[in-house]
Protein 1
Amino acid sequence: MSTLVEYLKSDPKFSTLVAAVESAGLVDTLNNLDANLTVFAPTNEAFEEALSILNLTAEELLKDKETLTSVLTYHVLGSKVYSNQISDGMEANTLNGEDVEFSVTEEGGVFVNDAKVVEADVETSNAVVHVIDTVLLPEDILDVQNEDEEENNGDEDED
C-alpha cells in the first residue's frame, strides 16, 4: 500500500497539492509511516479557485512558506477519521491548531467547512484521504485577506 504522498503523486489531479507539500517541506511529515492522519485533499481546480480568492499566483503561494504551511496543515487531522465516523456539527482540531466543522446533508453529502467531500475514505499506509472540491482556508488567512480587501476598498474611495 502506498504512503499518502505516493498516492497524491500517482494522481495528476493533485499536482498542485504535491507541489505545495514539497515547497512547504512537509513531505517527510506526510510520509511518516508511524502517523495515522486524515487528509482533506483539494484538487487542482480547488487550488485555482483559492488562488483567485487570495489574489495570488501559484508561484507566489509556493514561495510564501508560512502561509502555505498554515493552509496545508489546516487540511490534516492527527488521527484517522473515516466518513462513517463523521456526524453533523462535529468539529475536529487540525495540525494547524484551528478546528474544522463537518456537516452532513440529508442526502448523505459530507462537507468540511464549505468544502464538499467528493471522494471519501481513500486508504493509504499512513492516512485516510478525503478528496475535497475547495481549499480549506484557516481563519488567520481569511482575516488577512479580509483586511487586504478593506484596505484596497478604502484606497479606491480616496481617489
Protein 2
Amino acid sequence: MAHVLVVDQDLELLERLCAALRGRGIEAQGVSSGAEAMARLDGSAVDAVVCDGKIDLLAHVRRHHPGTPLILLIPAGTIDAVVDAMRDGAYDCVVGPIHPDKLGLLVERACSHQTLRRENRELRRQLQHATFRRGSAGADGEQGADPDGVFSVPLGRRMEEVERRYILGTLEMLGNNKARSAQVLGISKKTLYRRLHGYGIPLGPQEADSRRAVRASYGSDGR
C-alpha cells in the first residue's frame, strides 16, 4: 500500500483530501503545518507528498528526501508560482479547485514513479553484485572463480536485456515522457536516446532534434 503525506492548513480540506485518497486504497496521513510535515518525513518513509502551496516544504524535501515526489496545491491565477515550483523540482502542481478524482490519479502516478525508482535502484544493486555459485554459468557460458569459491560472470547480454526491459517499462509507465523517464532511471536524456537508438526504436522528428541538441551540448562526438 502506498503511503502519502498530505499537508494543508485548512483542516476541513485536509480531512477531505485524506478521505479521498484512502478511498482509493492509499494510506494518507494529514498534518497542518510545515514543521509537522518535516518531522513526519524525517521519522518515516512516504511515497509522495501533497502540500498546500502556501507551506514552504519543497526545499526540505529536495535537500533531505531527494526523489520523493511532491505535488503542490496552488490557487488559480498564480502561474508564476507554478513555474517556480516546477523549476525548483516539484513533481506536479494542481491549480485552482481540487477535484479528488484528478488528485487521486496524480498521486497514484507519483507513487508508481517512486516505486519505479526503488525497483531501478534495487536492480542496479543486484546487477552490480551479481554472482553465480560454483557450477553455474552465465548468459555466455563463461565463469571465473574468486577465492571464496563464488563464480562471478560477465553479465554481457543478460545485463543489457534486463536494462532494456526496465527502460522500456519505465517509458510505458510514464506515458513515453523521455525527460521524466530519464530522471527515474537515473540517466541523462542523452544516454536514454542512445539506448533507444541501440534498441532500434525510431525517434520522431521532434525527439530526433532534441537528441541532436543534447549531443551538441556535449560536443560533436556525442560523448
Protein 3
Amino acid sequence: MCDPISATAAITMAGGMMSAYGSYQQGLAQQQYYQYLAKQNDEQAKLIKQAADENVEKINREASKEEAALQDDIAQLEGEQKVSMAVNGLGAGSVTAEDIVLDTQTKAEMDKEAIRYNADAMIKETQTQARNQAWDLRSQSKLNLFAGKNAKRAGEINAASSLLGSASSTARLYV
C-alpha cells in the first residue's frame, strides 16, 4: 500500500498537469479562433474590393449609355433645328443659324462633361469607401492575429503557473 503523503502528492501533481494541459489547450483554441476571425476579415476585405470594382464598371457602363442617349438626342435636336431654320428662311450660312448650332453643340458638350464628371465622382466615392472598409478589415485582422498570439502566450503562462503551483503544493507535503 502507498503511504497517504505520496498518494496526495501524486494526486496533486496529476491535477496540476491536467490543469496545465487544459490551460495550454485553451490558449491554442483561442489562438485558432482569432486566426479564423483574421482570415474572415481578410476575405471580407477582398469581397469589398471586388464589389467596388464591379460597381465602377457598372457606373462606367451607365455613363456611356447616358452619353450615347444624349448624343442621339443632340443629333435629333440638330436635325429639328435645321428643318426649323430652313422653314423660317434662315440659311445654313447665316450668323444666326451658326450661333444656334454652336450654342447647341456647346451645351451638348457641357452635358457630356457633366455626365462624365458625375460618373467620375461616383467612382471616386465608391473606391474611397471600399478602400477605407478594406483597410479597417485588414487592421482588424492584424489585431485578431495579435490577440491570438497573446491568448496562446497566456495559455502557456497559465500552464506553467499550474505546474509550479502543483510542484509547490507537493513539496510542502514533504517539508
Protein 4
Amino acid sequence: MFATVILAAVSGLALLAISMSESGRAAFPGANGRVAYSYGDGYSGSIWSAEANGASPLRLTTGSNDYGPSYSANGGRVAFERENGIAVMNADGSGETQLLSGSYSSSSEPPEWQSDFQNPEEPSETIPFVKIQTFTEAWHVFSSPSFSPDGTQLVLGEGSGEFIYTLTCAVAEDEDPECLSGYQEGHYFYDEECIDCESHIITVSASSGAQTAEVVPPSNSHQDYEPAFSSAGAIAFSRWDYSSEKTSIYVAGSPGAAPVKVTNGPYDSAPDFSPDGTRVAFLRDGDEVGIVGVGGGPLTVLLVPNPAGVKYSYLGSVAFSPDGSKLVLARTLNPVAGKSERGIYTMGVDGSGLAKIVDGSGPDWQPTALPAPQPAPVPFKGKSAKGKIKLSKSGKGSIGVIVCGSSPCALEVLSAKLTAGKKTCAVKVKLSKRLAAGKSASVRVKVAGRCLAALKRAGKGSVVVRVRVSDALDRRVLTLRSTLTAGANKKHGKK
C-alpha cells in the first residue's frame, strides 16, 4: 500500500501545517510560576494553568480550540493558538484579544466505482470492484506563538496550501459504499498532491498582529515551523528538508539573520531555549528529549521510559522551567489495554524525577516571582428595585437587595426614611445582620401608622435606606432608593 493513515504521507508538511501545535515556549528566566497548558477531550481544548505540582488548576479560556500557550518574559501575558489563528490574554485569563485569524476547509467529490481495477502494486493482478473518491483540504494557519524578550512582538509560524488526495479502496460489490475492512494488503491505495504548500517564520506586533518581519522566507526546498524566542532575542525553529526528508533544529541569532543548523535529525522538533539562552531542548524521534548548545556541538539525549503496562508513548512538547533546573513535557501514553492518556510531566534536566502533574498538552512554565494568579476579588454591592413598589395591605415591601462579595459581610441599617407629600417619617427595615460570601439579602421595609396614611393620601412616596456594609476588602455605606405606593401586592408583600 502507499499509506495506511490518511495524511500521513503528505510530503511532510500538509500534516504539519494544519495540525494544532503542542509546543509550549518558556524561554525566559525567573522564579518557577504556574504551568499553562491545553486541556480537553482530544477534539477540543481550553487553556488552563496550575501550580507546578498540579495543584489549584484554573481555567483561563472558555474556547473549544485553544492550544499551545506561551508566557511573556514577565509572566504577565499569554499567547496561544485559537481557531487556526493567534490570540493573547493576561496571565489570569482576562483581556483576551484575537490578533490573527486563519482558515481551514475540507471537501470531497462524490465517489465513483470501477470494476477490474489494476492493482498498482501488482500490475498483473486486478481487483474486482473499487471505490474511488477525492478529498481536498485547504488552509492558511498561524501557529506556535512566542513572545520577544521585551514583549512587543511574537514570532510564529505561518503556513498555507491545498492538499488533494484520492482514496481508492476495494469493495465487495459494485457501488458498495463501504471499503473492505482490516487495511489488508491490496485493499487501500492513496494518491496525493500538495499545491503551493509552504510554512515559514514571521514576527508580528503583540498588540495589533501586524507583521513586522519575515524571519525566514518561504522556500521550495524546506518548510519552517515551531519557532521560539530566547531571552537574548535569538530564534530557534524546526525545519523539514524535502531532499533529505529530515526534520532538524535551526537557530537564527535575530530575525532575518542566517540560521545555523544545530541538529541533524532525522526527526528533531519543538525547540525551546534554556532561560539563559545558551541551550536548546527539543524532541527527538517523538520519544526522547535532546539538549544542545545554541551553536550546535555535543548533544545530550534524555530517555523517557514507559511505565509498566504501556505499549508505546510519544512526546508532544518540551520546555525549560524559568530557573533552568527542570523540564516540563507533554506526553501521551498508549497502554496495552484501555484508552490513551495525555498528560503534563516534569523532570530534572538530567532526566531524573519524572512525575505527572495534570492531564493536558502543550505546557509552558510561567517565568515570574509574582504570586500565582488568583481569581479577582468580588466587592459587595446593592441594587434598588426598579419601578414603583406596591406595599402589601400591612405596609410591607422589598425595595432592593444587597449582595455579599467574595468574603463574608456585616450589614447595619443607619437610616430609613419615607417622604410622602409634605410628610417625612422613619420606617422600619428588616435585614440580615451578616451574610456569607456570595449570598444576598432582601431589604424589606414596613410602613405603618401615620406614615402609611400619608402615603395613601399622597398616592406615592420616596423611601431612602442607608446600610453600612463591611467585609475583608472594604467598608462603605450603600444607599437604596425606591418609589412606594400603598395597596395590596402579592409579588412584593406578605400577609
